[in-house]
Amino acid sequence: MKVATWNVNSLRARLPRVIELLERHSPDVVLLQETKCAAEAFPEADLAAAGYESAHHSAGRWTGVAVLARAGLGLRLVRAGLPGEARIGEARWIEAEIPGLGLRVASVYVVNGREVGSETFAEKLRFLELLAARTSELAGTPLIVGGDVNVAPTDADVWDPQALVGATHVTGDERTRLAEVLRAGRLVDAYRALHPDDPQFTWWDYRMGAFHRGMGMRIDVLLVAENLVARLRSCGIDRDLRKGPKPSDHAPLLAELTPS
To answer: What is the pLDDT of residues 191-204, one digit of tens each?
Structure first.
């Protein structure tokens, strides 16, 4: 069983790359972020032609999250959005059940935060608290949460901690709240569980040749319920999908688990 998460930075612009992911890895479930689609523009038919059912929470040009499931596994939308979100019109959380896998999955796109101390940064911290509240409600279920959390969990997850002092994504306030998401939901960071000492990144700025210079961060995660960890077999980043025509600024993260 294979699960992928990917911030595609516009699904319409990146649809050929998403199809490439599906063909290359044949994932059972794909969690997408930053789809940037209006609801009526979401490419359900294209994804169905590629062999995937889809459920999406769409809000237009800036946000948007989706779940794809391989046809035949089933896909039931459970929830779109989190109660208490500061900007109710933004689409940052979608939760679904995959009956054929016995899983509940969620795709999340955490608020960026922009600048420490700003109103948007406060909204980010609040969103992470809401996320912890929801994972606490789901603790003990066969749950996988994947997405762009806009937080590098530790200094090992950034190219140069000193270069980022005082910036978003690495502050104690953000990291503490992300850690609470895991603690409350009894979740494990799949990549770090299998690669405790291997610094790899999922995001690189488009500017300054950041990808080729290794100036990245690991801000995309797959959080796996503790009761699924024994089934975890691999977790890695497909850097090749950050290359080539029209890449997202993120690379997909994929985990493989043995069947139940």
So the answer is: 999 999 999 999 99
Output the DSSP codes for 103-155. Answer: EEEEEEE-----STTSHHHHHHHHHHHHHHHHHHHHTTS-EEEEEE-S--SSG
**How many domains is the chain partitioned into structurally?**
1
Q: Distance (Å, rounded) from C-alpha 151 to C-alpha 195?
A: 18
CB 71 within 8 A of CB 48: yes
Q: What pLDDT, on a 0 to 100 scale, did the predictor assign at position 141?
A: 97
Task: Confirm whether pTM is higher than 0.85.
Answer: yes
Classify residue 132 as left (phi > 0), alpha (psi -120 to 50) or beta: alpha
State which residues of the chain have pLDDT below 50.
none
Residue 196, domain extent: 2-257
Q: Do 5 and 67 meet the contact criterion of CB atoms below 8 Å apart?
A: no
For residue 37, the model assigns a pLDDT of 93
For residue 34, CA distances in Å to 89, 116, 159, 186, 233 come to 14, 22, 23, 26, 28
Q: Whole-angstrom Cα distance, residue 242 to residue 78?
A: 31
pLDDT digits (tens, 9 = 90+) for 235-256: 999 999 999 999 999 999 999 9
Please list the alpha-helical segments (H only) found in the chain: 11-25, 44-49, 119-138, 172-185, 190-194, 210-213
CATH of the domain at 106: 3.60.10.10
Tokens of 82: 């989190």
